Amino acid sequence: MISILENVPASELRLEVVRGLTIWEAMPVLVHQERVDFIRATIRPQTYDPNICKCFHYADLSMRFPDGSQKRPDIAIFCERPKEEREAVTMLPEAVIEVVSEDYEAKDYQIGLPFYLAEGVKDIIIYNPADNSVLHCRPDGTRNEMTSPVEIDLVCGCTVTV
């Protein structure tokens, strides 16, 4: 991946550290951010019962996991608003959605997916706009491969269209 980043200014790089592995990635481009925004606009509660998940969702949120790993999922979904406002969020998200960027497929499929599953994130969705494929996985071993657009009900009580 070093060759991909040779011509990228440092101000346009983002860093993640997953179980000691440092991952440098170019900042998301406009079309990537538009896809993230489109998906976020579809996130909603499955029911309007106030005792169910409130479906708070954030893009590119700085997160720190118990083992010290630092990730910035494209979309993190929580049932309640995280308490941290000026530092990395430590609350485990209910669901994570990653939008694959060209040349960074391994970051989402080979590093991110097993990491989120091991951490206990209840729903992990990886959307690859290059072929409209959607992979939806859960820690219980559930693995669904679909084609976008598709509506997915999350364990937490939210629904999202990818």
Offer a quick outline of the entry:
20% of the residues lie in helices and 33% in strands. The protein has helices at 2-5, 30-42, 105-119, and strands at 13-18, 21-26, 44-45, 56-59, 63-64, 70-71, 75-78, 95-99, 123-128, 133-137, 143-147, 151-153, 158-161. The longest helix is centred in the last third of the chain and has 15 residues, at 105-119.
Stated plainly, the CATH topology is called tt1808, chain A
Structural class: alpha+beta
The CATH class assignment is: Alpha Beta
The CATH H-level superfamily is tt1808, chain A
Care to describe what's here?
The protein has one domain (29-161): tt1808, chain A. 20% of the residues lie in helices and 33% in strands. It has helices at residues 2-5, 30-42, 105-119, and strands at 13-18, 21-26, 44-45, 56-59, 63-64, 70-71, 75-78, 95-99, 123-128, 133-137, 143-147, 151-153, 158-161. The longest helix is centred in the C-terminal third of the chain and has 15 residues, at 105-119.
